Amino acid sequence: MAERNGQLKSVVIHSFRRFRERYFPEKVAKNLVSDMDQEEGHLGYLDSLPVDTQFLIMTFLSPVDICNLGATCRYWRAMVRDPLLWKYFLLRDMPRWSSIDHLTMPNLELLDAPLVSEHESLDDREEGEERNRDLNIDYMSEYLKGCPSCRQQWLPSRPAYELLTSFFQYLVPSSEPRYAMFGPGMEQLDVSLVTRLMHAPDLLPVSGTPHRQINGVGSGISYLFNNQHKFNILTLYSTNRAEREKARLEQQSFSNKLFTVEGTDESGYPVFSPAPQVQKVFQEVDGFIYVANAEPGKGDGASEVAQVRAVLNCAGDSAAKPLLVLSCVSREPEEGNDGAKCRTPCVYMAKRLGLPQLSNRWMVQDTVAESLLGVLDGISWLLKSSGVKI
Questions:
Q1: Mean pLDDT throughout 335-355?
Q2: Contact between residue 95 and residue 340 where contact means Cβ atoms under 8 Å apart
């Protein structure tokens, strides 16, 4: 990834340089005032800097600042619109994103495409014409819709009447949403996410432990979100505690009692079917929480995809039930040389689980079991997707 970013960085700088030489030659000569600068009545010092310096400055700016820079004059508008620039930002920043969902997931196939050559970059297009495949792709929109900070900034505000309606809804008792939680991240990590959730009253107070709540199958724990919204999580383990602990310590697999293997499909991938008593649970709950193991080198993509789809296929009206993926590690991971944390990025976790192909609403949220970082953000999305007004 770092090598690919370095190659793309060189292509972007070369693209900037040739584009400026072709369409803005007055910017190349030092201390010359371009037509745009004369219109604005001042010398654009930033405009006359070498393009590699300009690119370096842009790498320190936030996406919003870069867009604001593009609104200052025609020169910066043209430079900021360069698709290769935003492709570079996507490849650089995606591993740092903490969440992604069904609406904001970028098209990773576009990023896997070969890099354009230096002779097929920004300077090969007239204004409004993009002949190169990369230049036809709106990487800027892909970035802005996926970047968590941009998503929050441009979320529509709730109108006043909706706030008033929400206030009255708080006064009316509502049904308690129920969610089935399962996945290898509950069993393979050194720190138990479920145990930490049960002992974090300052984060999610436990409001009750009812029994036989779902048609006589299983039991769960009720929590309070923001001390207002009650919801229930039914934890489903693949086997008993002794076998899970033994398998975790010995790094061995064990028989999964939640699913049975039905065979393989045409592509050779496994086909699973939930156990009969578990099917009743999946049909009754309002949504699902899948705890994935995001530690480096962990995870079996084919089996995970098959199990997630088996759960959704057996659930009644499954397309209406949201899926929250907690992409979990035991402890806060250290950062690598490129600034990215040593964990599976959420966008690649979504790809690993085949989430873009699902019809359900879904979200992948980076989570740390020890500190419960990210849990509240994930639960907030899940409750909103279940119709809870927060």
A1: 83
A2: yes
